[in-house]
Amino acid sequence: MHKQQSIIEESLKAIMEDEEFLPDLKAQTREQAYHSLSALLSTPNHVHKSFLRITLENGTIVRIPAFRVQHSDTVGPYKGGIRFHESVNEEEVANLAKLMTLKNTLHELPFGGGKGGVVINPKDYSVKELHLICRKYVQYFNDIIGPDKDIPAPDVGTGEREMDWMMGEFKSTHPGEPYRNSFTGKSIVNGGSLGRREATGKGVYFTFRYMMHDFVKENKKWLSDTDNIFAKTALEHADKKLKIAVQGFGNLGSVAALEAYQCNYLQNKIVAVSDAHILLYNEDGLDVPALVHFAKENNGELPATEEELRAHEIKAELGERDDLLSADVDVLILAALEDQIREDNIDSIQARIIVEGANGPITEEADKYLADKGVLIVPDILANAGGVIVSYYEWVQGKEAQFMEEDEIFRRLFQKMKGTMDTILPQFFGDPFPLRQNCYIHSVMKLSTIMYRQGKLY
Ligand code: NAD
Predict the structure, then answer these.
(1) Are residues 246 and 346 in the same domain?
(2) Phi and psi, residue 78, nearest 5°
(3) 99 lines ligand 1 (CB under 6 A)
(4) Which residues are registered as beta bridge partners of 113?
(5) Mutational pocket test of ligand 1: of 156, 298, 332, the residue with most ligand atoms within 8 Å of the beta carbon
């Protein structure tokens, strides 16, 4: 069973044992409700698959597999990114669509969950071919997407350029209909939202900072009185200057690292960062703005030689990429890929707090093992929702054709994430479940209640 599904099953069991949950269902067997919910949540509403017919620039015709999975529209129109990657497959897209349902519900966004994918390595295609792939994607899924049906966004391998192209095609194929909010993650000139690019990285750091330095400090008294192992971990780190390592220095990792660096009232230090090629380490703290500047000028990559470091006056030791995971740090922010912490490297992890920026960077076995040791894992569903939250603001702005200032976007983003944490954290530190399980329980509970009240669960 996939990790998400097994957590959903565990969450359902926990909910079913809760006497307060849907008391009207008491007349029926709870067993029946459990099976109904399990069936509704484990399977998507629709799986759309097509083979995009593309004529390459050299005249060859190819057929490229493409997916759009619509998991649930219980809470609102389907919403989720479109991934361009060679490893895309139906199961992966379906699992990511399910995660979107749970994430959107957790953060009280008026969206269901969906996800898309195209099986390509974008680097193998010319700009003209990529443009054609984007247009064909919209043409093939023309009837199922739209501002009130299913609103895609960027994901791995796609960005604002692709969203602009797709919105442009949607506009052509739906003349006279609203189109501005058919896609989110667009460029600013094309109706995108200010702050969208930084939203996920800022949200990831905010989640960590709010939990450790606001919530934990404010609630020190009762947290010290509980025997919750995660409360102990949090308290041990609450007043310390923390050493942080960030895996991945792309859109998410570089913004999260910069947020940590700039948050000088906490004096946390980014001591290690890595990308696909290299690890940089400095015990006294890395000059993150200089690294961001370097990456901007060098195709997103970190300096990888002594000469490059010297030329940019950056003080750091170079190391093996994967050694970042075992670095002597308090906090690991995972902002690269899935399945990075696994059974084979789990014993080397020293960090006691791990923040999941990427989706699914810790395998199920590793997750359980670390949780048993009291490692506080801030899960993807909670920490990396900044992108979809600002996508929601972009969607609203598109509907109203009124645009907000950047400050206003970030104010709302942090307010929303704070609201979610204020609901989740007291419950989390008060019961024995890890934070991921807690978020799932909350989300599944809310989805079930909404389904029940809509007359869809009996
Ligand atoms: P990105 O492509 O901009 O950056 C990825 C970074 O990871 C790059 O620096 C790359 O060099 C690095 N990397 C790749 N393999 C690595 C490895 N083995 N070790 C260390 N670094 C490695 O992607 P992004 O937008 O920053 O997203 C990162 C992850 O977060 C993805 O898994 C994505 O699905 C997830 N995510 C992103 C967003 C968003 O809004 N950007 C939102 C939610 C989730």
Answers:
(1) yes
(2) -60, 145
(3) no
(4) 72
(5) 156
**Cα-to-centroid distance, 336 and ligand 1 (Å):** 4
Alpha helices, H only, 119-195 = 127-140, 160-173
Residue with tokens 């994967």: 322
Pick 18 or 44 by higher pLDDT.
44
As a whole-number percent, the residues of the chain with pLDDT over 70 amount to 99
Average pLDDT over residues 329-342: 96
CA distances from 194 to 109, 187, 252, 410 (A): 19, 9, 16, 9
Q: Is residue 420 part of a domain?
A: no
Task: Check whether 432 has a pLDDT greater than 70.
Answer: yes
128 is catalytic: no
Mean pLDDT lowest among 9-18, 136-145, 265-274: 9-18
Rounded CA gap, 244 and 268, in Å? 7
**Are 67 and 9 contained in the same domain?**
no
> Do residues 368 and 254 share a domain?
yes
pLDDT bin (cut points 50, 70, 90) of residue 452 is confident
> Tell me, what's the pLDDT at 90?
97
